[in-house]
Amino acid sequence: MVKKHSEFLNRRRFLGEAGCATVGSIAALSTIFNLRLAGTLAAADDTPEEDYKALVCVFLAGGNDSFNMLTPNGGEAYDEYALARGSLALSPSDLSALSETLPDGRQLALNSSMSELLALYEGEKAAFVANVGTLVEPTTVSEILDGSAKLPLGLFSHSDQQQHWQSGLSDNRSPEAGWGGRLADCLKETNGVSGVSMNISLAGLNLFQTSAGTNVFTKNPGDVPGLADWDQPYFLSRRTAIESILDAEYRNVFEKTFVERTKGAIAAGREYGEALAAADPLGSSFTTSNPISMQLEDVAKGISARDGLNKKRQTFFVMAPGWDHHSSLSGHPAMLQQLSQAINEFQNAVIEMNLEESVTLFTASDFGRTLSANGGGSDHGWGGNQFVVGGSVNGKQVYGDYPDLAPGSSLDTGRGRLIPSTSVDEYFAELALWMGVSKSNLPLVLPNLGRFYDVTSESPPLGLMDLG
Fold first, then answer.
1. Is the dihedral of CA 399, 401, 405, 411 positive or negative?
2. Residue 208 predicted with pLDDT over 80
3. How far apart are CA 140 and CA 26, in angstroms?
4. What pLDDT does residue 220 have?
5. CA atoms within 13 A of residue 52's CA, in its CB half-sphere
6. Burial of 123 (0-12, 13-18, 19+ CB in 10 A)
7. Which of 384, 452, 451 is nearest to 418 (CA)?
8. pTM (2 decimals)?
9. Is the pLDDT assigned to residue 183 strictly greater than 60?
């Protein structure tokens, strides 16, 4: 926020105080040309339909205990689950059965706190991806034990695993772009001219949407980005001073880049506000006490402004913190309920806009949790369960292989840390294809995909999305 009271403002101070922001906003100059060239070639090769599509990532930061979200229901499978989880096991009364059974006859259930998500699943508008996680290459317990396995860097580290989920590069600790950013580079020519990026974040800067060729438009829920009081009459003198600094000529590349970015940000904030004001207001309600709802309400508003922003493709990033339940899982059902409620409210808004087939929401998280207890909670694990919601989802199904949860199973590396049976690469490839990336260009978005999926195959990576 810019202060209202008079204060001496000069070019050196203005640039000096913002130096850290300048350095943080500039991508490595040596990579810009190559990545932009790759994006241009990709865009030329991809010919997505002209209809609108939006991809919404809800990141459950901390590591969701997802085997208490999607759980075996009854029979031997539930008994094995209860043995593995011990004091953490949910009772049958805490579960709501899915109507469809797995191919091997097992039945799964959803945590009963997620009644809205269950209704979306039964209405064929939601699906689950089982035991998905970061992998460098397919591996086994024996390969891990004999040291021959290539494993994700920092396997049980929050920061490393969040980075791997968002970059799609499990063998790289210093990625320069996220897979959503590379996706935007491939599809940016689909959109019209606009100062507002196709990648909009409700949770600050993030790796997922970042690339050398695509900026991230960040905003707080309920706010329109911009300098405080910029258009107020009493701010005119300070505005004139700021504009004179921004209009000056700079030789230093960092100063010049910062000024260009600042001017672009001011213009983008104004453009976004004008597009939002011109859009039809939403009638759907969102729960103001639910922080996930508040972020998703802003996502819905950003989608409603798509025409004013000249967008045919958009991505959105939402962060839901607090899923690191080391000491206790007692609050987990309430958090799942909050998540389920927010997603249902968002889906109602999407339906109101007549965009049910055009918007897909998916979850991601650091990792799954250990099946065994750590006192009243669970520790950092590996594979876990995620879900996808939208009218283009081939719903009412569980994709991937839901694992055997018995202690010492073929995927158990110890304490119920399960090797993922589906890679994040396959999961994200399905979403990238739906957004309009061609199979031949999937390696530009997900460079390691070839270790898990043959892009020349006639079959999709998972079959999760309607790619028709």
1. negative
2. yes
3. 40
4. 94
5. 21
6. exposed
7. 384
8. 0.88
9. yes
Tally of CB atoms within 10 A around 286: 21
* Cβ-based neighbour number of residue 51 at 10 Å: 11
Enter the tokens of residue 13.
């101070």
Distance CA 50, CA 34 (A): 27
pLDDT of 429 strictly over 70: yes
Distances (CA, A) of 341 to 55, 289, 300: 19, 11, 15
Q: Residue for token digits 């505005």?
A: 239
**Domain-by-domain residue ranges, the chain?**
11-451
Q: Is the model's pLDDT at 457 over the cut of 50?
A: yes
* Strands 126-133 vs 398-399: parallel, antiparallel or unpaired: parallel
What distance in Å separates the CA atoms of residue 208 and residue 141, rounded to the nearest whole number? 30
Confidence at residue 310, expressed as pLDDT on a 0 to 100 scale: 98
- Residues 138, 151: Cα–Cα separation, whole Å: 9
What per-residue confidence (pLDDT) applies to 238?
Answer: 75
Question: Mean pLDDT lowest for which of 21-35, 158-172, 387-401?
Answer: 21-35
The closest of 203, 210, 223, 165 to 362, measured between CA atoms, is: 165
Q: Which two tokens stand for residue 90?
A: 């949910």
Annotate 327-336 with b (16+ C-beta within 10 A) or e (fewer): eebeebbebb
> What whole-number distance in Å separates Cα of residue 49 and Cα of residue 42?
15
Task: With a cut of 80, say whether residue 288 has pLDDT above it.
Answer: yes
**Partner residues linked to 274 by β-bridges:** none
